[in-house]
Structures are given as C-alpha cells and as structure tokens.
Amino acid sequence: MTTDRDDAPTAEPSADTASSDLPSSVEALETLLEDEREKSQRHFASWQRAAADYQNFKRRVEEERSETARFANVATILNLLPIVDDFDRAFINIDPTVAGLNWVDGVRAIQKKLQGLLEVMGVSEIAADGEVFDPALHEAVSQGPGEQDRVVAVAQKGYKLGDRVIRPSMVVVGNGSGTQAAGSEEPGT
What we know:
Layout lengths: L1 H6 L7 H78 L9 H19 L2 E3 L12 E7 L6 E6 L2 E3 L2 E4 L1 E6 L7 H4 L4
Helix pairs in contact: 2-3
C-alpha cells in the first residue's frame, strides 16, 4: 500500500502544465471578479433605490400626518362656525334695553374669545360685502337690485383656513338694476 501512495502523482504541477493552466485560471478569475463587481453594483443600486424609497415613504407619512391634523382642525372649525354665526345674529338683534347689562358684556367677551381662538388657528373671514362676486370665495344664493356682479348683501359669512376656503360666503349678487326697479323684478328672481 505504501507503494501506491508513493506512486501517486503529486499535487504540484509540472512546469509544462503550470504555464498552460495559469492564463486560463487568471482569465477565469478576472471573469469571476467582473461578474462579482456587476453583482455588487446591482446590489448597491438596489440599496440606493430602497433608501430613496424609504425617504419618500417617510416624507409621505409626514405629509399624511400633517394633512390628517389639518382635516381634524377643519372639522372642529366647521363645527364652531355655526356658534360664531349665532353670536353675530344675537348681537345684531339685541334689544337696546338690555344692551348695557353686565351679562351681555360677558357674552360679548365670550364671542371675542371664540373669534380670537379662530384667528390663532389661522381662520380668517372672507371679505364679501361690496366685493366683486368670486365663485371661488362666494356662493350666490340669489340676485337682487344693485351693481352687476357685485355682492350686495351677505346671507352667511364665509371663512378661510390659511389660503383654503373652508366655507364660502353665501351672498346676494347684484343683477344690474337700480333699487327703484326692485319691486318689479323681485318676483322673477
């Protein structure tokens, strides 16, 4: 048995076989290295896309969170606006005999606090009376005597939150006729 092992070829190649295997081994290694570089570049590009997608996802989530908060504010504001309208109507129609009483002044102070709160939240009233009718800001509920396409009366105040209209002003728009012709044109409107 020992002779079989002694007769076995050695692992070292001879000078003739080493020179012929070397170029093919180097070429194979270079090809393998190039393949691995390409694979590495693909993985790196995939990682970059994934990182960019993650950043975009984070930005979208933050925008959605902000939008949700803004919608919650709008819902709260829209629920408060009828109360503001009621205060306005109450003070327009207040009986002069009670106008100077302390409790009326207290209610007026509550109204001012509510208006201050809305201002802090970024709510502003839409100017309407005497303005040119703008369908983006006003909702025409009827026409009446007055200058053509001008708001002649405000039926309900409108409000904006920042630059966004949250409730348009409900207005009466002038039809171009004078106040003398109002009696003859009113039944047709």
